[in-house]
Amino acid sequence: QVQLVESGGGLVQAGGSLRLSCAASRSIFRVNAMGWYRQGLGKQRELVAHITNGGSTNYADSVKGRFTISRDNAKNTVYLQMNILKPEDTAVYYCNVFPAWDVYWGQGTQVTVSS
Q1: What is the rounded (10 degree) CA torsion for 82, 85, 88, 90?
Q2: Do β-strands 109-114 and 10-13 pair in parallel, antiparallel, or remain unpaired?
Q3: Rounded Cα distance, 110 and 115, in Å
Q4: What is the per-residue pLDDT for 1?
Q5: For position 81, what pLDDT does the model report?
Q6: What phi and psi values does residue 102 have, to the nearest 5 degrees?
Q7: Which of 52, 61, 89, 103 gives a 20 to 30 Å CA spacing to 80?
Q8: What is the pLDDT of residue 2?
Q9: What's the rounded Cα separation, in Å, for the pair 103 and 70?
């Protein structure tokens, strides 16, 4: 069964940092680009960043220069390093393949940034 398990969220003050992790089953991780997505309260889910198998990355304009996506192919894990966090980054963060497949959405991890 395919699983994507996110972790690393929490409460942080504005300007702080968090590192999110997503452990994926090997079958999904090795053949797909991976992405981090987020959904704020009352907002639509949006793509934050994605990374290809070869390591090419792309970011939403709102997080460029602050967030870094990376992947460890040996561990089937994708990371999101988030620096200079802002209150508007508050959301539930999810990982999924890129483009996302509905069947792969997990529980997500809550990130709350206080001002």
Answers
A1: 60
A2: parallel
A3: 16
A4: 62
A5: 98
A6: -55, -35
A7: 103
A8: 60
A9: 23
Per DSSP, 62 falls in state T
Hey, what amino acid is at 47? L
Give Cβ neighbours of residue 41 (< 8 Å, ≥ 6 apart).
90, 91
Q: Is the omega angle on the peptide bond into residue 99 within 30 degrees of 0, that is, cis?
A: yes
Q: What pLDDT is recorded for position 30?
A: 79
CA–CA dist 26, 92 (Å, integer) = 24
- Whether 95 and 35 have beta carbons less than 8 Å apart is answered as yes
Give the pLDDT of residue 31. Answer: 80
Q: Which residues of the chain have a pLDDT value below 70?
A: 1-2
The token pair at 94 is 């999810």
Task: Read off the tokens for 109.
Answer: 């991890």
